[in-house]
Amino acid sequence: MKPQYNVYNITTTLNEIVITIENPKGNKFAIGFLLFWAVIIAIFPFLFFIIVAILREGLPFSFMIVCFISFCVAYYLFKIIFWNIYGKEIITISKNETLSIQCDYRFLRDKVKLYSFVDIKIMYQDNISNSEQFDVESNIYFKLDEKEPILTSSKLPIFTIEKISEQVFSFLNDENKKIDNTMKLSPVSQDL
Fold first, then answer.
1. Among 160, 122, 154, which Cα is nearest to 141's?
2. Is residue 43 within 8 Å of 83, Cβ to Cβ?
3. DSSP alpha helices (H): ranges in the chain?
4. Among 53, 156, 160, 173, which lies 20 to 30 A Cα-Cα from 138?
């Protein structure tokens, strides 16, 4: 079976290049399982409230805590569901030396993470000895001004990351911007 890759799209304007990485739709069984539990967890406080109202008892303070926790868990589960159905990552690199990354869940969006840079390197993590294989995927690492690399959430094939870095390099077209499309990282810890 052929692996299902994330789809990417690059659009350019006069001052910025926008890379959109769309995730393939997730497993329907897994999404259904998560949806079932998200709905049950979200409905639980309402059912408890109805039972307490029928019994005409006062609402305990612990009920508020349970409601808060259940809504937080349900929100997180819905966020995972939306990411697996509609998720895409939007990366914007502008000529005024800023990089922004945002995860879009269609109905929900993360805050835009904005970074400034003077030098930029686009890297990937290559865990195998022969990078000519086309089915090897990696996250994109943006190394800005010799700081810790910024890691994307989505993975792409290594040859695609190399194409993206070439397009970004040609867009910036400035000798002060250093983009290394062949830089490979040794295994990096996930606490970035």
1. 122
2. no
3. 28-55, 61-86, 158-172
4. 173
Q: Return the SS3 of 132.
A: coil
Q: pTM, whole model, 2 decimals?
A: 0.73
Q: Quote the DSSP letter at residue 27.
A: -
* DSSP type of residue 14: S
Please give the torsion angle defined by the CA atoms of residues 146, 7, 81 and 192, in that order, rounded to the nearest 10 degrees. -10
Residue for token pair 């304007």: 13
Q: Whose structure tokens read 């089915």?
A: 135
Q: Which residue has the higher pLDDT, 189 or 93?
A: 93
pLDDT in tens, 103-131: 888 877 788 889 888 888 888 876 655 54
> How big is the chain, counted in residues?
192
Distances in whole angstroms, Cα of residue 120 to Cα of each of 79, 97, 158, 169, 183: 31, 9, 18, 10, 12
Residue 113: Cβ within 10 Å count: 12
Residue 123 token pair: 């890297």
DSSP strand pairing (184-185 vs 120-125): parallel
